Amino acid sequence: MKIALRDVVKRFGGVTAVDGATLDVADGELFTLLGPSGCGKTTLLRLIAGFYRPDAGAIRFGERRVESLPPYERNIGMVFQNYALWPHMTVRANVTYGLRLRKLPAAEIVERLDRGLRQVNLVGLEDRYPGQLSGGQQQRVALARALVLNPDILLLDEPLSNLDAKIREQVRGEIRLLQQALRITTVYVTHDQEEALSLSDRVAVMRDGRIQQVAAPKELYERPANRFVADFVGTNNFIPGVCTEDRDERIVVDTPLGIVHGRAGEGVVVGARCVLAVRPENMTLSAAAADNLVHGRVAVASYLGNTLRYDVETRAGVLLKVDVGDAWHHEPLAVGQPVRVGFPASAALTLREE
Predict the structure, then answer these.
(1) Residue 202, strand partner residues
(2) 3-class DSSP string for 271-316
(3) Cα–chain center distance at 29
(4) How does DSSP classify residue 83?
């Protein structure tokens, strides 16, 4: 089922929570709404679900306009952040609750329950109560309850935020495998950029009720549309400057570090202020030759397990984060040790200064 939003607006008093959102979600796609708290992503999901009615704009499921329809007429499945399970009901009763409201035949309810429990690996736990389950198991119950309704669209609102890191990663993988197997159109809300990048076919980044960029995870990470997206998705070094030349998609920027060569971003013009965004993993230490070389000293060394991160203080006072991926074979550098940082022009994305 395709989803189309056109110029959707939602206000709460004097606050515009969603400001002119236009989106297309393809049939069978896992589409994520990503952004910080208060950016409007959950409000947008609730507009799709029918819990809120937009003040302006249109929402279509396929060819059908649905913005005036209540949730129960939209054939959606919803998984909430807090699971929303009935604590006095067993797993069986929680999963079949919606089916019983629809007054389906008993045999069909049993068949759908069995299928739903198999899909989320909960077979054998149907007589337990939510309080007897782990957080991950409770989340699976909530997912099964949504799936047994055979929805056209699955909506998930921060479904993993209450789980610890290890379980969150496991359940995340299970959700993705299940979504791909069922090919159900899914809209997923999260503030966790790693979650968004690993799960999604495409991601919409939101800020202050507005959509900043819609892209596949790789494009979003490698070609952010603006500084906000570059800063929110992953870690970046930002080097301010003025664009002085544009040479066949290679930009020359006058910065506090000296002349830096980068690749052109959208809307950058000669003579205007800009900022270069460089990922820490694209910077190298003690580089003999590179498009860009900067001198500095080690200010902080942080061991992150699979990565060793150095904060390098440059002579101009700009702090650069540099990641060493192979920490096992790397001889650690002492704090205060002089270093040279190198990075290619292709890794320095030039963005308009906001």
Answers:
(1) 31
(2) CCEEEEEECHHHCEECCCCCCEEEEEEEEEEEECCCCEEEEEEECC
(3) 15
(4) -
344 and 276 Cβ atoms separated by less than 8 Å: no
Cα–Cα–Cα angle for 353, 285, 232, rounded to 5 degrees: 35
Residue 241, Cβ neighbours under 10 Å: how many?
22
Mean pLDDT of the region 226-249: 92
Cα distances (angstroms) measured from residue 17 to each of 43, 45, 54, 199, 220:
7, 12, 10, 25, 23
Q: Is 328 helix (H, G, I), strand (E, B) or coil?
A: helix
Backbone region of residue 112 per phi and psi (left: phi > 0; alpha: psi in -120 to 50; beta: other values)? alpha
d(CA 252, CA 42): 41
Count Cβ neighbours within 10 Å for each residue of 274-299 and write b for 16 or more, e otherwise.
Answer: bbbbbbbbbbbbebeebbbebebbbe
Cα angle vertex 257, ends 255, 261, to 5°? 65
Residue 131's Cα: distance from chain center in Å?
A: 30
Separation between Cα atoms, residue 267 and residue 246, nearest integer Å: 12
User: pTM of this prediction?
Assistant: 0.92
Of 214, 149, 144, nearest to 4 (Cα)?
Answer: 214
- Residue 165 neighbours by CB distance under 10 Å: 8
| β-strands 30-34, 202-207 pairing | parallel
The first and second tokens of residue 37, run together, are: 């708290």
* Dihedral sign for Cα atoms in the order 111, 114, 115, 117: positive
Is the CB of residue 116 less than 8 Å from the CB of residue 147?
Answer: yes
Answer yes or no: is pLDDT of 8 > 90: yes
Confirm if 22 and 16 have CB atoms less than 8 A apart. no
Look at the block and give the residue holding tokens 């979600």. 25
Residue listed under structure tokens 């819609």: 214
Using a 10 angstrom Cβ sphere, with 0-12 exposed, 13-18 middle and 19 or more buried, the burial of residue 305 is exposed
> 42-101, pLDDT tens digit by residue?
999 999 999 999 999 999 999 999 999 999 999 999 998 888 899 999 999 999 999 999
